Amino acid sequence: MDFRPSPAQQLLVSTAREVLRKHCPPELIQRLALDARGFDDALWRTMAELGWAGLLIPPELGGSGGSLLDVILLTEEMGRAGVPGPFVASAVVATSLLLAAAGAEQRKRLLPAMAAGERLVSVALVEEGAALDATGRLTGRKLFVTDAHLADDLIVVVRDGADLGILLLPVDRPGITRLPLDSIGGDRLFEIAFDGVVVGADDRLGTPGRGRELVAEALRAGALARTAEMVGAGQRVLELAVEHARTRVQGGRPIGGYQAIQHACADLVRDVDASRGLLYAAAWKADERLPDDGDVAMAKAYAGEACLAVARRAHQIFGAIGYCEEHVLHLLHKRILAASLDFGDVAENLEIVARAIGLSAPGGGPRGY
Q1: pLDDT at 176
Q2: pLDDT digits over 147-156, tens only?
Q3: Residue 8: CA atoms inside 13 Å, Cβ hemisphere, count?
Q4: Antiparallel, parallel or unpaired: β 121-124 and 153-160
Q5: Measuring CA to CA, which residue among 80, 6, 72 is closest to residue 332?
Q6: What is the CATH number of domain 7-115?
Q7: Domain 211-356 is found in CATH 1.20.1250.20
């Protein structure tokens, strides 16, 4: 098991850091946080031109043919820069589902445009009673759909007997309404209302009986990507806190000369590095097609607590300036908090870990994804 990035991956990381330094400075992040769309078209075009939007898509379909570990390394850099937008939802989760479940014609129609950054797809998972009726019409609501205002299509997961059904619907189909929800983390979340939406055979993805398996695999990729965002944001918070400790003078010397601050910064290093180690181990197992449910959940749960602790401790190190909107720390903190809740919060992922070591959930049935 060798977690050292390959030369190609090292180039990907260094290129991403330099591009995001130039094209996604803190001033842009601050502006997008207050913008209704929360999306910068020029930045997305730059990312697409570099092949990031199609990193998981095979070359024959216009993509870069990268691995999940490539995506994790890239997403970590995006988290470090605080990049907002639909990358995880569209380029990771939706792309993974389409690669696994879409037919050949559906892939040819969607994936080249997604790789070019010209088409975005969001995933509608969390529901309040969304279901197909006897006539094949979809009625109900889906909640917390990320960047639905930017999407051209929706992948909608519905209950289909004992299994899950996967639907691919254009957002402009009659009966679909997108309603914005308030959020603290800067993510643009939406409620999707379905009012008798007609669903045809061509709108279905996957083989009957495999829906739950296909959805779980894509959501594990999303959980890893969100964990990478937390690790990247935690790394940036660590860097900012150490730099502040070196330069902020109090009592005639830098505050980093005081043992309390030294130990606090050492805690940040421990939490970020431990989170990264668990993330890379889980991503490696996923790439090698090894059983990884417990590893993904462990990485997500640990980073959800550890990186949040990093952000909270950094506020104490910074003092008053760390609580001001003019400083980027609050945005990184909110991104970590939002990512910790996505694709299962700490408690849910710890239940998955418990099942992986042979313990069943109280009350019988597992919760899972």
Answers
A1: 97
A2: 999 999 999 9
A3: 7
A4: parallel
A5: 80
A6: 1.10.540.10
A7: no
pLDDT band at 291 (very low <50, low <70, confident <90, very high): confident
What is the rounded distance in angstroms from the CA atom of residue 343 to the CA atom of residue 129?
19
User: What pLDDT score does 61 carry?
Assistant: 97
Three-state DSSP at 369 gives coil
| pLDDT for the residue numbered 361 | 56
Judged by DSSP in three states, 85 sits in: coil
**Cβ pair 65, 58 in contact under 8 A:** yes
Domains in the chain: boundaries: 7-115, 121-205, 211-356
Q: Give the integer Cα–Cα distance in Å for 332 and 329.
A: 5
The model's pTM: 0.94
Reported as a pLDDT band with limits 50, 70 and 90, residue 127 is: confident
Amino acid at 163: D
Q: Which of 86, 90, 99, 72 is nearest to 299 (CA)?
A: 72
pLDDT grade for 362, boundaries at 50, 70 and 90:
low
Kindly state the tokens that stand for 31: 């502006």
Question: In the CATH hierarchy, which fold is given to the domain comprising 121-205?
Answer: Butyryl-CoA Dehydrogenase, subunit A; domain 2 (2.40.110)
